[in-house]
Amino acid sequence: QQKELQQKDKRLKQKDEYRQKELQRFKKELQQKDEYLQKELQQKDKRLKQKDESQQKELQQKDKRLKQKDEYRQKELQRFKKELQQKDEYLQKELQQKDEYRQKELQQKDKRLKQKDEYRQKELQRFKKELQQKDEYLQKELQQKDESQQKELQQKDKRLKQKEIDLREKNKEIYVKNIELKRIYESRGYKILSKIWTIHNSFQKNRIETYYPSTMLFSLNSLCNLNCIFCDIKDKTKKMSYENAKRTIDAGKVLGIKTLVLTGGEPFLHPRIFDIINYAKSKGLTINITTNGTLIKSQIEKIKKSELDSISISIDGLEKTHDMLRNKKGVFDKALEGLKILKKEAPNIRLLIYFVVINQNIKELKMIYQLSKKLNVEFNFWPVNNKPEFYLRKGDNIKEYISFVRYLSQIDSRVKKWEEYYLKAIDYHNKENLRVRCLGLKDFFGVDWEGNLIPCCLWNNKELVVGNILKQDIKELFNNKKAERLRKQIFHKGCINCYNHSLAEFQEKTGLPFILQ
Questions:
Q1: Which residue range(s) make up the domain with 335?
Q2: How many domains does the chain have?
Q3: Which end of the chain has fewer CB atoms within 10 angstroms, the N or the C?
Q4: What is this structure's pTM?
Q5: How many CA atoms does the CB half-sphere of 339 hold within 13 Å?
Q6: What is the greatest pairwise CA distance in the chain?
Q7: Where are the beta strands (DSSP E) in 266-336?
Q8: What is the pLDDT of residues 386-417, one digit of tens each?
Q9: CATH of the domain at 383
Q10: Which stretches in the chain have pLDDT values below 70?
Q11: CA distances from 48 to 35, 38, 41 (A)
């Protein structure tokens, strides 16, 4: 073991010696490399120093050139500033000269204007004096004429009053008997002719002339493209067929109607509306159509070819109010556009604006009348009566209505003639629980899209239906018990506030006929 250990020690020593030798050799190599690297570094340093020196020289040269450029630019700037200053001074001088010239011109203009104003004022004063002199002269003349006319009128009034007193005394008994006869025969489907001498002639010939209404209100359909707040039609899907429409017109002709008023709904939504118009014209009828006016533009070519006599377009206020009442924006503009198109394209058709008077639009009644005058179309108005919220029961609104009627009666002879009736119509908006009479089934009657015969245009009121003209003879319907009762007196609540009662009362008191035109 010792020998082995000794041998191991030897080998280890040999290895150590070998390692030391290797280390020494490696150190030498490292030293040599270090020396080589140091030399290389020194050379690189030299080259870098040389480059730095050359770059510094170049930079110095560039700096010199830049300085020279800066100096040149500064000189140019100074020169440019001087030029600008010179130009500014020149422009300021020019502006001052122009301002002075303008001021002089303005002063001259002011002088001329003052002279003109003075001349005009003098002319105005002279003209005012002349006008005053003319007014004074005319006033004197008018006073003289008024005095003479008043005297003449007073004398005429005295004579007329005396004649009226004499006539009243002579005709008291005759008037009472004639009114009683009128009531009796009207309740039986007859109408006594309007003048006393014709009644006398009728009795002399042993006959009473049978009378049927001359106007039929024909609601072709319940279809409508709007939703008016005062409309009482609930189901807006119904329409009468073309064949039944012809039968209805034929039934009206049996009674001897002269005028056919086509309504709805919106009549222009009926698919055969123009065929119905043509058929009615072939029967010699005068035809009016009542529309909201929104479809005129799309139907104008067919309207031009039709033989319509008149078109009534409903306009119930200015744009905001009308659109609110129709529950749709833009319909006022469409109705107005329709009127203008009809005026231009169909000048032979009589045009009317129809205004339904309610609490919500009474303030705009006069403005829509003025609009009708501007458009040169006729104007018609009535208070609506189908819902309590629309009755004219507010004091201010009633005053507005009365004021408008009186205003209109001064400029329209037709309104003046029927002023009492228009004013009387408002009374029925302030009364309740009345037993009332109507002109329905006397002067006019209505037929709806199902063929139901009713006294007027309350299309949704089934209690007023007399019968169906498509199922029964129209003359028999006019002479049945229900028709007779309706002609005598109407008890239905929905009819109490209708303006037609004032018309019936007006006719009864005056004996004058009120023709629906």
A1: 214-390+440-493
A2: 1
A3: N
A4: 0.56
A5: 24
A6: 186
A7: 286-291, 310-314
A8: 555 555 544 555 666 667 767 776 776 565 55
A9: 3.20.20.70
A10: 164, 166-211, 384-402, 405, 409, 412-438, 489-517
A11: 20, 15, 10
